[in-house]
Amino acid sequence: MMEKINTSSKDYFILLGFSNWPHLEAVLFVIILIFYLLTLLGNLFIIILSHLDAHLHTPMYFFLSNLSVLDLCYTTSSIPQLLFNLWGPDKTISYAGCMIQLYFVLALGATECVLLVVMSYDRYAAVCKPLHYTVLMHPRFCRLLAIGSWVCGFINSALHSLFTVLVPLCGHRQVDHFFCEVPALLQIACVDTQANEMTLMITSSIFVLIPLILIFTSYGAIARAVLRMKSSTGLQKVFGTCGAHLMVVSLFFIPVMCIYLQPPTEKSQDQGKFIALFYTVVTPSLNPLIYTLRNKDVRGAVRRLMGRG
Predict the structure, then answer these.
(1) What pLDDT, in 10s, does the model give residues 11-66?
(2) pLDDT above 60 for 309
(3) Contact, 222 vs 242, CB < 8 A?
(4) What is the value of pTM for the model shown?
């Protein structure tokens, strides 16, 4: 009978990560480090540019700055630990470190789900209600929407983290993932975790399926409005901003659905690691590129700042 973990400061977990593929660890280290640096540079660029250029003080770039802050925090909550584990033989994380990581990964992931809905509503208001846009997306209302997104994510994470902490864990301490997440920790529980898994499934559905329904509803209305447009310039602008947002939504939600909305199996656990690697490493680095490439507002802001310098 395996001993239960005594949750003292001396306890630790072993993050197995990609140890089943030791020949890949050096390659993964280099690739992940490059993407992490791109994430830091790209998202810091958006945050700083949106703050410095007055022309970007709009709801769209306010929410985009929030998304960039979110992506910076989300990657930093797990990637440095992953790089440390890939670099050498030591793959441990303290019990406290694991619980902190669990809380922030959950909180920031749920926050992004809600924030992407808010961003789709902003595009809906801009395209479908242009005459009322400044009233609908008043700066104070935008701040409330952003704060609400963060609060929803962190409250959801607090509930899941508490339920997970209360589950007695067995003594082998080996977490079959590269970061601390609820499904991986429930696999080493010494008790029946069906209630926890059901709670996770329900809240995942709320934070994934409902946002997706709201996002597609917004873009359905946008599509109808676009079809009625006669200006080619207006069409290009709508497709530019809305297309970028839809791409970001797809890159985030599709991998999340593959992990959290399917029953866990031994095969899906290995696949899940690489899928999780995609949305924790690749997606946050692509978001700045998707929103800034061929974006006249961003190019104009860069030119103005360069000219000012």
Answers:
(1) 889 998 888 888 889 999 999 999 999 999 999 999 999 999 888 999 999 999 99
(2) no
(3) yes
(4) 0.87
Distance CA 259, CA 249 (A): 16
pLDDT tens profile 68-77: 999 999 999 9
Give the DSSP letter of residue 280: I
Residue type, 157: S
- Max mean pLDDT range (16-20, 110-114, 198-202): 110-114
CA R_g for the chain = 21
Mean of pLDDT over the chain: 85
Give DSSP secondary structure letters for 114-178.
Answer: HHHHHHHHHHHHHHH-GGGHHHHT-HHHHHHHHHHHHHHHHHHHHHHHHHHHTS-BBTT-EESSS
Here the tokens at position 143 are: 């701040």
> Angle at which helices 194-227 and 95-128 pack, to 10 degrees?
20
Q: Which residues contact 28 (CB under 8 A, 6 or more apart)?
A: 18, 86, 277
* CA dist., res. 36 & res. 77, Å (int): 12
Residues pairing with 170 in the sheet:
4
What whole-number distance in Å separates Cα of residue 84 and Cα of residue 68? 24
DSSP element (H, E) containing 13: strand 12-15
Q: What are phi and psi of 13, to 5 degrees?
A: -120, 155
Rounded to whole angstroms, the Cα distance separating 36 from 3 reads 38
Q: How far apart are CA 221 and CA 219, in angstroms?
A: 5
Residue indicated by tokens 């239960």: 4
Asked whether the beta carbons of 280 and 252 are under 8 A apart, the reply is no
